[in-house]
């Protein structure tokens, strides 16, 4: 009797969105963490060439040129991902269209402000990294600690959640 109950409850959990969305969310977050952990060393290599991959006589990229290429690539991948997720959303979100996306400006001013702050912060971080070293610039930024603080304290992301959400 107890085994059937466990199997029935596990079936509900596996069919329901909790485990599916949690595992997908964790996989996406893990991949994002890998990307974030590699982009600063890649930027450092682009400007300082510690591995001596440039041919003799080729000057190193300055921080402004590298930041320009970084910004253009962020813009391009942002457009590609946004259009892809509009028509093929993840986590059972509703499909949308480019027209609906362009017409709906409800709350978009905050998203634009967030993007401007992110771009400005990245530019200053890269310039500070060129001057003081990229390890110092990354240590000052402390993204995981700061974003966790904002999420828990200011936005109350874990308030009124059951324990299984935190421990999964």
Description:
- With 168 residues, this protein is mostly helical.
- It has one domain.
- Helix content is 76%, strand content 0%.
- It starts with a helix and ends with a helix.
- Helix 3 packs antiparallel against helix 5 and helix 5 runs antiparallel to helix 6.
- The relative contact order is 0.07.
List strands and helices in order, with pairings:
Blueprint: H1 2-15, H2 17-48, H3 63-87, H4 98-103, H5 108-132, H6 134-141, H7 143-154, H8 163-167
Helix pairs in contact: 3-5, 5-6
What features would you highlight for this structure?
168 residues, mainly alpha, 76% helix, globular, disordered C terminus
Let me know the number of strands.
0
- As a whole number of angstroms, the C-alpha radius of gyration is 21 Å
Taken as a percent bin, the fraction of beta residues is under 5%
What is the share of helical residues?
A: over 70%
The end-to-end span amounts to: 27 Å
Summarize the structure.
This protein is mainly alpha-helical and 168 residues long. It contains eight helices and no strands. The protein has one domain.
């Amino acid at each position: 009797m107890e085994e059937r109950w466990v199997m029935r409850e596990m079936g509900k959990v596996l069919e329901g969105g909790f485990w599916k969305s949690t595992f997908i969310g964790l996989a996406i977050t893990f991949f994002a963490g890998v990307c974030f952990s590699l982009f600063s060393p890649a930027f450092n290599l682009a400007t300082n060439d510690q591995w001596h991959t440039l041919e003799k006589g080729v000057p190193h990229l300055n921080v402004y040129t590298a930041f320009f290429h970084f910004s253009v690539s962020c813009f391009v991948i942002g457009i590609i991902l946004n259009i892809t997720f509009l028509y093929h959303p993840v986590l059972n979100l509703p499909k949308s269209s480019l027209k609906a996306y362009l017409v709906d400006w409800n709350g978009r001013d905050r998203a634009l402000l967030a993007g401007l702050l992110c771009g400005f912060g990245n530019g200053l971080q890269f310039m500070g990294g060129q001057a003081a070293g990229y390890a110092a610039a990354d240590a000052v930024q402390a993204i995981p600690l700061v974003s966790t603080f904002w999420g828990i304290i200011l936005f109350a992301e874990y308030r009124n959640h059951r324990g299984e959400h935190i421990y999964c």
